[in-house]
Design a protein that fits this description.
The complex is a heterodimer of chains A (about 240) and B (about 160). Chain A is mostly helical and about 240 residues long. Chain A is about 90% helix and about 0% strand. Chain A contains 4 helices and no strands. Chain B is built from 7 helices and 4 strands; from the N terminus they run ααααβαβββαα. With about 160 residues, chain B is an alpha+beta fold. Chain B has a 4-stranded mixed sheet with strand order 2-1-3-4. Chain B starts with 11 loop residues before the first helix and ends with a helix. Classes of the chains: A mainly alpha (about 240), B alpha+beta (about 160). At the A-B interface, helix 3 and helix 4 of A face helix 5, strand 3, strand 4, helix 6 and helix 7 of B.
């Protein structure tokens, strides 16, 4: 190898190192930009979902409150109609129904909070490359939450309906019992009235017949009665 | 039994009155003389009772025994218990007594009570046998048999 060739080798190596260095620098810059972009996109992706989740939670709470309110109104109406119940019983029924509704709403709220929390966690673990999948996840979460709300509404409505039916059935049974007792009472009173009227009629008949019988007729009746008794072998 | 006495004794009340008179004679027997006793018989007793006692004492010879026997006899007379719708006159009592002595027992005495609700006729109680032959019972029976019919008329 000549001395000139020996001189170009270090220059060539230096240039190669510089090229490699620049490549690394450019790649670093590109990657940094990419990271910044990803970060921005991720934040933008998170923002609507968080808003959406918040709205879902808010809507769920409003629905739950509405259901609770309706349940209370229904309970009050049922109790208002159930005139046969005492005040204590009414209070007890309202209290039971309120407890039932409140317990369901509490469970529902807890469930929505858990769903929301779960959804956010899933999104936080999602990279920008999975943006499409995240959007799908948002939709799925939305659908699932909506479905759960519908389920909850149906379940609560079913429970209220069942409770209402049971309550109305109880009221019907009580009403039937009271009606039966009234009918029985009326029957007894009518029977007593009939007996009384018949007794008075009988007495009037006797007095009318008695007044129309003369002493001679009385004598005849007495002897005829004795003859009748004799025919019946009353005297042996 | 003095048969003519039964002409006067028809009811248990008649027997009671006779027994009262016999008790009086018995009570006075030991207190007064024979003369006073006969005066008492004439003044305090009904004439037919006085006659029976005088005749009886003469026949029997002992006042005490006669009075006792007579009282026992009338107390043992068989009774026919009757309830009538009216308070009967003596004529009606005699008619009933005649019928009873002819058809049941010649010595029978009537024990009569009154219940206006019988209307007419009578009830009979004789030796434990009872029968209601009154018009009141007949009316009761009619009302009882036609009770439903009357009730439906009342309700219509």
């Amino acid at each position: 190898m000549s001395s000139a060739q020996m001189l170009y080798i270090p220059i060539f190596l230096l240039l190669a190192v510089v090229v490699v260095f620049l490549t690394v620098v450019f790649d670093y810059i590109r990657l940094t930009r990419k990271y910044i972009k990803i970060n921005d996109q991720e934040s933008r992706a998170k923002e609507p979902f968080a808003k959406e989740a918040s709205e879902i939670t808010l809507k769920a709470r409003r629905d739950a409150e509405k259901i609770l309110s309706e349940a209370q109104i229904s309970a009050n109406q049922i109790v208002q109609n159930a005139k046969k119940f005492s005040d204590d019983e009414k209070k007890m029924v309202v209290s039971e129904l309120n407890s039932l509704a409140q317990a369901n709403v509490a469970n529902f709220s807890k469930m929505v909070d858990e769903t929301r929390s779960e959804s956010v966690k899933i999104l936080q673990n999602t990279s920008i490359e999975l943006k499409g999948a995240s959007e799908q996840a948002i939709k799925t979460v939305n659908l699932e939450t909506t479905r759960q709300i519908a389920d909850f509404q149906a379940k609560l409505a079913g429970q209220i309906d069942e409770f209402s039916k049971a309550l109305l059935s109880l009221v019907s049974v009580e009403q039937k019992k009271v009606e039966d007792e009234i009918d029985k009472y009326k029957e007894i009173k009518l029977s007593q009235l009939n007996e009384r009227i018949l007794a008075v009629s009988r007495q009037i008949s006797k007095e009318a017949v008695g007044k129309s019988i003369s002493i001679e007729d009385q004598r005849e009746f007495i002897i005829n009665s004795l003859e009748e008794a004799r025919k019946h072998k009353l005297f042996g | 039994m003095h048969t003519n006495m039964l002409d006067y004794i028809k009811t248990t009340r008649d027997v009671e009155l006779l027994v009262e008179e016999l008790d009086l004679v018995e009570d006075q027997m030991y207190k007064v003389t024979d003369k006073d006793l006969y005066d008492l018989l004439g003044k305090k007793l009904r004439s037919w009772v006085a006659d029976i006692i005088v005749n009886g004492i003469v026949d029997r010879g002992s006042e005490t025994e006669f009075i006792k026997e007579l009282r026992d006899e009338v107390k043992k007379l068989p009774e026919l218990r009757l309830t009538l719708a009216i308070d009967p006159s003596r004529d009606i009592i005699i008619d009933i007594s005649d019928w009873a002595r002819k058809n049941i027992d010649p010595l029978i005495i009537l024990d009569i009570s009154v219940d206006n609700s019988l209307v007419a006729g009578l009830t009979v109680d004789y030796k434990g046998e009872y029968g209601d032959y009154s018009i009141g019972e007949a009316i009761n029976s009619i009302f009882e048999k036609r009770k439903d019919e009357f009730s439906s008329l009342l309700l219509s």
